[in-house]
Amino acid sequence: MWLLRLSWALAVLGVTAGPSPGPSPGPTALPPDKASIFADLSPAELRAVRTFLMSRPELGLSPSRGGPLAKNSLFLVELLPPKKRLALRYLDQGGPRPRRQARAVVFFGGQAEPNVTEFAVGPLPRPSFYRPLRFKGGRTVPFAARPMTQLEYELLHRTLAEAMEPLYRLLRDSTGFWYHNCSQRCLTFSDIAPRGLAPGERRSWLVLQRFVEGFFLHPVGLAVLVDHRDPDPRRWAVQQLWYNGQYFSSPQELAERYERGTLAVARLAEPPFRQLFSSYEPRGHFATGTPTEVHGAKVCEPQGRRYWLRGNQLEYGGWSLAFRLRSSAGLQLFDLRFNGERLAYEVSVQEAIAFYGGHTPAAMQTKYMDAGWGMGSSSYELARGIDCPEAATYLDAHHLYDADGPVRFSSAICIFELPTGVPLRRHFDSDYQGGFHFYAGLEGQALVLRTTSTVYNYDYIWDFLLYPNGVMEAKVHATGFIHGTFYTPQGRRYGSRVHSHLLGNLHTHLVHYKVDLDIAGTGNSFETMDVRFENISNPWSPGARWEAQLGDPGQGWEMGPPPAPAPTHVGLLPAPDDGPDPDPVPRRYHLAVTRHHENEPTSSSIYTQNNPWEPLVSFEGFLHNNETIEDQDLVAWVTVGFLHVPHAEDIPNTATPGNAVGFFLRPFNFFDEDPSVASRSPVIVRPLDAPTFSRLEIQRWTPASPGPCVAPGPFTYNGTYRQE
């Protein structure tokens, strides 16, 4: 019997490092037309879906941008992947090709009982039908659970500008900036979620900040609670304000306190025009004086690319896979194979959350669940030579997310071969007399599939790495600006003072992955391997006793994030029945294994952020049906994360070293030997005249010299993402 071996293995390492098709693939590769059943919708398909739905009079759809909130509008269109059983019948049994469909999310705000409805639309490329998609249990999506839109933000801005008018003098005198009727020295805001304390609420704390470069690090000490549940913004209202440690019931009350001179005012220094602490402009010097004004080491491909990319199918060494970039949640791999044998049907990012602690109302309320912020659609342009090597292959992405047509995100994905800087394996066979019998080594390389998500202040760098020895690594780096709040002495319990008026708040990052492993078919089992010590008698020395390690090896693949327990800390993860507990991210489990069900495709949803109290997708429900997981089609759900205690060195941005987590898929007695022996990249050195060692035989299967490297050319960047 083939076993799905999921044992915790100690492992975590770094990352960083190619566009032309190569020769025809080997006979075990999946034809690219088959991989295309998993491909993202093309711009033409996105437009076709939108045109079809907009033409249906019964839906009554209006453009997303502009107009009132109380309207019916199309929010999201993305691929609706085929059901697994249909896909496998097509891929493995010569069955019919699954018809291509789209998932469309419609906000029905222009009716008596507003709601959100999802539809399957097809067949593509010329849609002719749509039907509602049902959530597990037949639940409907409350209108208050919908993600935010650009239109709602514009209306919030108008509401806040009007509310801040009485506070003009206070803000001008204390910060040098103001909110209403400003053209240059403006304040901006960041909004906090969840938006309230109970289902159906839509009340957001808005944190005011100076609108300068890196405004996330420039709070001015004022936060405003706005109730914006009603579809009519004329009924929105400011419910409370927090200023410099005190609560106020209205802007007028705060303004009156300032005019009377009884307010504890937080006066901020004028920000410098250059070398602002939140900027990337160089400042200071390294003590050694070693050069940094010249280019550092680069990645190159001296004999061309060693991977093939055809459409959404990627091949490298023994690996082949299909991939897509979901607007809702990010990278998703399908049909992951090694030497033609499927290892996983799907490996994908599901959710990323960050729980904060703090003294201010904004900090104590912050529990970000990034699928609700368009985590997959915030895949902005990757900078050549920085975000990915110059030699990488760069791919565009097209999203229809809160827009009136497809939006092109240039260079949103990159693919490159990475020199790891450490051998994949090596050995020096010493003769212990000053010489050696042989040396052999295989340079370490991996293929990297990368994208990023810039979810407002934070940047996540998402990587899947494929190694020649059959190991796959999933990894995410966290960088970008910390979510800081205004410093008060009481806040020191919840973080570090990282600048004069800035508190870096303690928080936990958790990232959730779906790993649908199909090892030698869909009938897998889950086992753990426990290791224990046992005292035994030494058979060749009576009376002596030894401790022996006992384990139960087996066959399959193992999965391994670090074995240490997840960090826990008071005040960051909600207690039972005390505020939102995001079931969709199984924070209680490093690993959970369930049976595959077509109605459990994801562990979270875009609605969880604004309704975590009654989530549409409740991961706990996946676990409570008491099903057997022996010889079944299994899905592993993996949670990785880390505790981030911000510090001064997080200024201006959190750095990637030490802020990465992930897991590995590794073969476990699956092959007869390390499959990387098929690589033609090793070097073997043998002496021909020991013990003088004056003549050596150097055996290699690649050119003797790698040749020239990086092609010259200036750095370029565009950074725009526009509807076409």
TrEMBL record:
Processing and modification events after translation: Topaquinone (TPQ) is generated by copper-dependent autoxidation of a specific tyrosyl residue.
Keywords from the named record = Copper, Metal-binding, Oxidoreductase, Signal, TPQ
Which residue numbers delimit the Copper amine oxidase N2-terminal domain?
45-128
Signal peptide limits: 1-17
Q: Does the keyword Metal-binding apply?
A: yes
What GO molecular function annotation could you give as one example from this UniProt entry? primary methylamine oxidase activity
Please list the residue ranges annotated as the Copper amine oxidase N3-terminal domain. Answer: 146-245
Where in the numbering of this chain does the Copper amine oxidase catalytic domain appear? Answer: 298-535, 588-676
Q: What is its EC number?
A: 1.4.3.-
* Family per similarity comment: Belongs to the copper/topaquinone oxidase family.
Q: What name does the UniProt record give this protein? A: Amine oxidase
Q: Which organism is it from?
A: Calonectris borealis
Tell me the lineage of the source organism.
Eukaryota, Metazoa, Chordata, Craniata, Vertebrata
